[in-house]
Amino acid sequence: MPELPEVETIRLHLAPRVEGHVLERLVISDPRWSEPAPPHDLHDATAGRRIERLARRGKYIVWELDDDVHLVMHLRMTGNLLLTSTGDEPPPYGRVRLELSSGEHVLFTDPRRFGTGVVLLGSDARDGYFASRLGVEPLDPEFTPEALRELARGRTAPVKAFLLSQERIAGVGNIYADEALFRARIHPLRPVGTLRRPQLAALRDAVVDSLNAGIDARGASIDDFRNPDGARGAFQNRFQVYGRAGEPCMRCGRPIVKLRAAGRGTYVCERCQPRPRARSGSRYAASNSSRTPSRSASSSSRKPPRERSPITS
Question: Is 59 a catalytic residue?
């Protein structure tokens, strides 16, 4: 699933090519992308409007159009935005096409067809939409060790589950959570509320460093993700733990272990990231204790809950 670095990579690539141009037509070939709103409603609300800015919030791409109209896209598990020119042969799995006054097209491709789109009328509607779904942006100055400490205070969930909760920290997914926890030397099953101040400060820095490293490498291409020009990202070549079960830890040489945390396949070095002691009666100790050095089925094979996408004002 594209995470914050992959979505930011798309934004950085597309912004100079689309900003200032007019979105002439929004062609939605798969009505499921916009349901329950019919495709023609999204077209009517956006066609002929100038693209003022291409923004990002968490894992969402936001097309900010004139007259305070916002076209919001979520790539979900396998979505991509590809830039093509008029007359180019369209790539497979295209669900949506944005036709620009420059003569270029932006195609929303999506093999698993879980991606969604919504039009929000007005900044208040946009802000309310995200306020109910997303927490702090981890690359914003407001994401400080103190802010992370307040979010974690009193919480018993494993730190991996905490990092994956978009309502608390927006944009962090499975890959970057594992990479950040390794950098911070924190076991993913450690209850987040038990982390001390120095650990929380290290975790904050590790989250920011991991995300920035992913952006610098133009994302990670381990499945479907591609840049808008079709090129692969390179962060998969820099993984320190993710996907490296059975391989030696880059710090200590001990084999990387794969286990389950927050329902996700999770990679950890249990020498560099000591496992927390099981507490009597802990619901996490029993349910998350299994380990395997091989790749197991992940939750990515399950269809995520569908987000409703009306036009909202």
Answer: yes
Q: Exposed, middle or buried by CB within 10 Å (0-12, 13-18, 19+), for 120?
A: buried
175 & 265 share domain: yes
- Is 270 catalytic? The answer is no
Residue 296 is which amino acid? S
The answer to whether 138 is a known catalytic residue is no
Total of domains in the chain:
2
Mind listing the pLDDT tens digit for each residue in 298-309? Answer: 333 444 444 444
> For residues 162 and 256, what is the distance between their CA atoms, to the nearest angstrom?
22
Regarding whether 103 and 154 lie in a shared domain, the answer is no
Q: Are 28 and 42 in contact (CB under 8 A)?
A: yes
133 a catalytic residue: no
pTM: 0.87
Candidate list 11, 183, 190, 264, residue with the active-site label: 264
Q: Do 8 and 119 belong together in one domain?
A: yes
Q: Which domain holds residue 39?
A: 4-131
